[in-house]
Amino acid sequence: MEPTKMAQKAIDLNLPREAFWTALALVAVLNVILLAALQMLSPARIAFEQQAFSLSPFAYVAIVGIFLALFVLGTLYTGKFIGGTGTLAGTLSIVVWFQSISLTLEAIQLVLVLLSPAIASIFGMLSLGALAWCFVHFINVLHGFNSLGKAAVTGVLALIGTAMVAGLIMAILGLGPAGGFA
């Protein structure tokens, strides 16, 4: 299905906002589970075990959840600043839908790691490109831009802003490569 139609269907669901926040929390948990599985099966497993950035699974879920919530708000308000007409419910729906697609591709990559880590890496890079293309179209529909350029700028600025705010929050909480809570 074409990304613009998928985005419109997701926005048209008109589910209660609480359902989307719950779905966002669920995709955060599933994301951490798949990431942990991918790390366990990765040929670079030893590198993951020796890293100084060691957190409990609950801390990872909290970080991913906070990042996703910030990304929802960043996508909404960046788009509005550029002249978009998106809503919070619409933004939640496209981010949840986007994350669902991302999780599906991540699960496929997990299976591919078992077959060939090299093929899994190539699939991961191709998936990243496809996801970026999809999300630009999702933002375009959400904010009614009729301009993929504006949608791309919105996505990039939202991602940069989200990363900066998330980094600041993590620094305030004392989370980082030098330490953290387990």
Question: How would you describe what is shown here?
Answer:
- The protein is mainly α and 182 residues long.
- It has one domain.
- The chain contains seven helices and no strands.
- Helix 1 (3-11) packs across helix 6 and helix 4 (57-81) packs across helix 7.
- It is globular, with a radius of gyration of 17 Å.
- The mean pLDDT is 87.
**First-residue to last-residue Cα separation:** 42 Å
Q: State the order of secondary-structure elements, H for helix, E for strand.
A: HHHHHHH
- Specify the structural class: mainly alpha
Count of separate DSSP helical elements: 7
How many DSSP E strands?
A: 0
Shape: globular
Largest sheet: none
Residue share in helices? over 70%
Chain-averaged pLDDT? 87
Oligomer: single chain
Our estimate of the beta-strand percent is under 5%
Low-confidence stretches: none
Q: What is the total number of structural domains?
A: 1
Radius of gyration: 17 Å
What's the SSE blueprint?
Elements: H1 3-11, H2 17-41, H3 45-50, H4 57-81, H5 88-115, H6 117-143, H7 148-173
Helix pairs in contact: 1-6, 2-4, 2-5, 4-5, 4-7, 5-6, 6-7
In short:
With 182 residues, this protein is mainly α. It is built from seven helices and no strands. It has one domain.
Tag the structure with descriptive keywords.
182 residues; mainly alpha; 7 helices; 80% helix; single chain
